[in-house]
């Protein structure tokens, strides 16, 4: 498992190649089996493949331009009214999407929408999301144009881990 986790990278360049349906299905499956506080599962997904919609979504933040190259974008929505833990739950959904995409030879990169200026309002207008449903992030999915190296030892900082007590 840790080998797969180390391969996951934030990829922002994709080939203009469609995503096979079975791969996309397994990514959605991985998202849906995320754990959830009190087993509420306060999430919904919008899978966007339409080019015009992808182009609109890619303009919602200064850090979302790469999304338009991706043949699919998954918007991770949170049902805030159903659970106070929707952010935690939906974050795990997004990570499952990212990890399964990597496992399928594809890539992704979290695009922050919640608490990011007007981005959430704009995404909701583009995707026609109801007022009481939140948008945590967008997860573009595509074949990486240039695979990035997997994480090496530099990410493991021994002093970030303490044992038994902090001091
Ligand atoms: C909560 C969160 C928000 C992020 N927001 C963005 C974003 O809006 N745009 C973007 O290009 N990358 C975004 N990233 C990707 C990070 O920049 C990336 O994960 C980080 O640079 C580490 O690189 P790695 O994912 O390849 O390990 C976000 C990642 C997380 C976890």
Describe the structure.
By secondary structure, this protein is α+β, with helices and mostly antiparallel strands. It has one domain (2-160): NADH Oxidase (3-Layer(aba) Sandwich), CATH 3.40.109. The chain contains five helices and four strands; from the N terminus they run ααβαβαβαβ. It has helices spanning 2-7, 21-32, 51-57, 86-103, 119-127, and strands at residues 43-48, 72-78, 111-112, 134-141. A four-stranded antiparallel sheet has the order 1-2-4-3, sandwiched between helices. Helix 2 (21-32) runs antiparallel to helix 4 (86-103). The longest helix is centred in the middle third of the chain and has 18 residues, at 86-103. The chain starts with a helix and ends in a 26-residue tail after the last strand. The relative contact order is 0.23. The mean pLDDT is 96. Bound molecules: flavin mononucleotide. Residues 9-10, 12, 61, 63, 109-112 line the site of flavin mononucleotide (FMN).
Question: Layout of SSEs?
Answer:
Elements: H1 2-7, H2 21-32, E1 43-48, H3 51-57, E2 72-78, H4 86-103, E3 111-112, H5 119-127, E4 134-141
Antiparallel strand pairs: 1-2, 2-4, 3-4
This protein binds flavin mononucleotide.
Please name the defining characteristics of this protein.
167 residues, alpha+beta, NADH Oxidase, 14% strand, binds flavin mononucleotide
């Amino acid at each position: 498992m840790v080998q797969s986790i180390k391969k996951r990278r934030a990829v922002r360049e994709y080939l203009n190649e469609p995503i096979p349906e079975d791969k996309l299905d397994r990514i959605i499956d991985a998202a849906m089996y995320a754990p959830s506080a009190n087993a509420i599962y306060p999430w919904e997904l919008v899978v966007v493949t339409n080019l015009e919609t992808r182009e609109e979504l890619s303009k919602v933040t200064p850090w979302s331009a790469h999304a338009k190259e991706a043949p699919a974008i998954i918007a991770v929505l949170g049902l805030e009214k159903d659970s106070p833990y929707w952010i935690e739950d939906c974050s795990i959904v997004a990570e499952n999407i990212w990890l399964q995409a990597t496992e399928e030879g594809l890539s992704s990169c979290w695009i922050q929408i919640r608490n990011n200026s007007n981005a959430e309002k704009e995404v909701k207008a583009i995707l026609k999301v109801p007022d009481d449903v939140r948008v945590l992030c967008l997860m573009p999915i595509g074949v990486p144009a240039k695979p990035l190296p997997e994480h090496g030892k530099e990410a493991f900082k021994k002093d970030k881990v303490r044992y038994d007590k902090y001091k």
